[in-house]
Fold this protein.
Amino acid sequence: MAEIGDLHHLITRRRLLGVASVGALALTSPSRAETTIDLPLPGGPGARPITTGFPQKGPMILQRTRPPLLETPFEVFDKGVFTPNDQFYVRWHWAIIPTDIDIGKFSLTVRGHVNQALSLSLNDILHALPSVRLSAVNQCSGNSRGFFQPRVPGGEWANGAMGNALWTGVRLKDVLDKAGVKSGAVQVRFKGLEEPVVADAPRFMKSLDIDHARDGEVMIAYAMNGEQLPLVNGFPLRLVVPGWYATYWVKMLNDIEVLNEPDTNYWTKVAYTIPDTPHASIKPGETNVKMVPINRMVPRSFVTNIVSGHKVNAAAPTTLRGIAFGGDCGVASVDYSIDRGQNWRQAQLEKDEGKYGFRQWQTQFMLPSPGKYTLLTRCTNSNGVAQPDTPNWNPAGFMRNVVESVDIIAA
Amino acid sequence: MFRNMLPAIILLGVTSMPFVARAATPFELKSLKIDLPDSDKMFPDGPGSDTINNNCLACHSADMVLNQPALSKQAWAAEVNKMINNYKAPVASEDVGPIVEYLTSLKGAK
């Protein structure tokens, strides 16, 4: 992660504005105007409104109005590796979300098993700690849940509950060091401003092990893609846990508590747990499985310039383009197959913007003769972990990362 | 409390990126006040629709439920019980049956 001064954002902003404006133009053109989208979820229902009703957000797939669940339309991912803030997906747990945030009054508390409890103003955080920036994918644990078979209840996302941003903020380690973590600390618990409607319902809180919290990579972000965060993406502060699922990326972060015993709160101990099995996968109906908190992400890759049903000319070169991410490390390779996985060829990887971010890839492919083809893409990450060729299954619909396929007709 | 660190940070910024030193405006945040949209969508009319409207819409809009796939009665009962036990939804015990029946009738597994 690059350490930077307070001045970096001018450059970042200039560079990113170029990317964002391209997206805005494409999406407001009349030919793309649509009010609903049909997500290809097996068994349905797949129809969702496209909403522009959320402040600071452009067109989004409306999964739930309150608390908001907004999915990024997939074509956004074809425009570059940084997902524009105004189309970055949104996921909240509880319905009471502050909508009026005064930056002069906001404070971040650091307390618990520390030498000195702190109450930091935004000024303290922006101007009195070293600033760092990092490109990282934020992906919902249940991204792609709608493709699970048999289907499972939950947010019925297609593949757009993910995004990549350049995050600017401060190291969590630096903040914890200011407070002085006492020996015997085991975890750090994070809480934001959202509250449940029912008073005795569990407040949303997530914890990381103390060594993870102090690894120098976990950060507290005050900017994404060079701008302050949209309110529904967690303004003014959001935890960034590179390589880990978004459930840990607590939004509107205002409370950090160092614990001297393991966190037993509902959201860490019970919710967001996965079977402790390869690919977090079990057979439907299987019981008595050891469950553990969801943690590191796994590799994924997607075609972004062609959708299923697309027609191409046989025996003519066609451009194939997409994105990939390694999960908890970088992308080593992206391979594609036009013969259902019998033969694989390597795609060309584009610029590396950081190991935790999206990596664009592209290639030219040719379908030899007219007919129907299924095109597969597979990412192998720098730890040597590849996407599996069969889908995983678990009752919560977490961690889908099967090799993706696109049906293409050659004529 | 971090005032003593400021000179070091400014120096780092100037020496590593001298070309932007003229525009030395630190990153600033602006206060935000927005209105989030709400939904007045109700569950489709049918036996139990009043019960589900009265019990479930305080915490979440109806679209979340209407976007769910077909699920077995057992799965719907598990969902309703999760709302009550884990998320403390104040659903009266006599309302649980009608809500599960309504959901199974609307979105039961074939």
Remarks:
- Chain B touches chain A through 51 residues (CB under 8 Å).
- The two ends of chain B are 64 Å apart (CA to CA).
- Chain B has five helices and one strand.
